[in-house]
Amino acid sequence: MTAIDPAFQTVADFLHTTIRNAHLDLTFAVPTDSEAEPGTFTLHFSGPDTPLLTARNGELLLAFEHLCTQFLRLTPDQHHHVSFDADNFKAQRHLQLQQQASAAIASVRATGKPYAFAPMSSRERRLLHLSLIESGLPTSSSGLAPRRHVVLYPMDYRTPEPMEVRPAKRTEDRVAALRKSFSRRR
Q1: Which of these, 19, 53, 141, 162, could form a disulfide with 61 (CB 3.0-4.6 Å)?
Q2: Closest Cα partner for 60 from 6, 15, 96?
Q3: Separation between Cα atoms, residue 100 and residue 131, nearest integer Å
Q4: What fold is seen in the domain 91-152?
Q5: Which CATH superfamily is domain 6-87 in?
């Protein structure tokens, strides 16, 4: 991607303003070895404040990515087109996910019980699902954000049937029932 691309320039201007206003000592550049597909923004941050980006499992780095996807008005299925990294954090995290996947596969095969991973971002869940495909074991994502996580199941495992959710009674009906139960008897 070239710096004359208007979308890239928009992202660059946004990041420069954000970094300056946050008083962070960071710079960013497009990696020279990047073979990114057209329409993909791959940036690498450097500078004394990069540990702030990678702290707490890369929370600030992911926040910058998320803000840029929102700034560019990308739909959720296009979020993978924006990728930021600092100190090879993502490459190291990908390696960790592959190691966790290998350990989980061994555990599920040995015990015959499902293995639930820790909650993670949608991008990391996707990477984990892809790492687990070769095992031939079924996977699913479970829970609601921000606690959404991947579950690895043994072969032929029957997942429990979902519970029936009954609609709650309307507030007016509950209030009337309470009043009736406490009304004076005449």
Answers
A1: 53
A2: 15
A3: 10
A4: Ribosomal Protein S8; Chain: A, domain 1 (3.30.1370)
A5: K homology (KH) domain (3.30.300.20)
pLDDT at 156 (0 to 100): 84
Q: Which pLDDT tens digit goes with each residue over 3-36?
A: 456 777 888 898 999 999 999 999 998 876 555 5
Domain ranges of the chain: 6-87, 91-152
What mean pLDDT is predicted for residues 45-71?
90
Amino acid type, 98: Q
pLDDT in tens, 141-152: 998 878 889 999
CB 156 within 8 A of CB 176: no
Same fold, 6-87 and 91-152: no
User: How buried is 154 (Cβ within 10 angstroms: 0-12 exposed, 13-18 middle, 19+ buried)?
Assistant: middle
First to last CA, the chain: 83
The model's confidence at residue 91, banded by pLDDT at 50, 70 and 90, is confident
